[in-house]
Amino acid sequence: MTKNDILRRIRYIFNISDDNMIKIFGLANLNVNRAQISDWLKKDEDSTFVQIEDIELASFLNGFINMKRGKREGEQPKPENRLNNNIIMNKLKIALSLQSDEVLALINNSEFNMSSHELSAFFRKKGHRHYRECQNQVLRYFLTGLQDKHRGSETEV
């Protein structure tokens, strides 16, 4: 999954308008305009498609956390320069106030099965002996579970 795919899926799942996308980026102290958002959301084949940078998606996810949970006191977290699926899933888990068993239920919503021990490995610090990289397939199942929960099982057109 590309970072643009993830941004598109989050926008679709939560039915976020362009104006709200701009506000979410603003909550993480990143000013973007409608044209940038439009270029990020275009299909990869489009000639005006622009790849979103990791730091921009991290800013969006930080803003999404701030929107859903409120800004925390003190200094705001700095957006990561390099994102991976583990960080993305963790930020969504925080934003939506999900417990591990709820994340597991979303992932296991399909025919895919994962244990709580496998899931906890995704939320460990890199370098921990039980740390495991979250594969695109797992993130895709998580996003599909969120979509089913928030939009029903309708398919995207």
Describe this structure in words.
The structure is a single chain. With 157 residues, the chain is mostly helical. It contains eight helices and no strands. Helix 2 packs across helix 4 (54-69) and helix 6 (100-107) packs across helix 8. The two termini are 18 Å apart. The relative contact order is 0.14. The mean pLDDT is 92.
Please write out the topology.
Elements: H1 3-13, H2 18-27, H3 34-41, H4 54-69, H5 85-95, H6 100-107, H7 116-122, H8 136-151
Helix pairs in contact: 1-8, 2-4, 4-5, 6-8
- Provide the low-confidence segments as ranges: none
Level of helix content? 55-70%
Q: How many distinct beta strands?
A: 0
Q: Any idea what the radius of gyration is?
A: 16 Å
Strand content: under 5%
Distance between the termini: 18 Å
Element order: H for helix, E for strand: HHHHHHHH
| Helix run count | 8
Task: Characterize the overall form.
Answer: globular
* Quaternary structure state of the chains depicted: single chain
Q: Which structural class is indicated by helix and strand composition?
A: mainly alpha
Largest sheet: none
Report mean pLDDT, rounded to a whole number: 92
How many structurally independent domains? 2
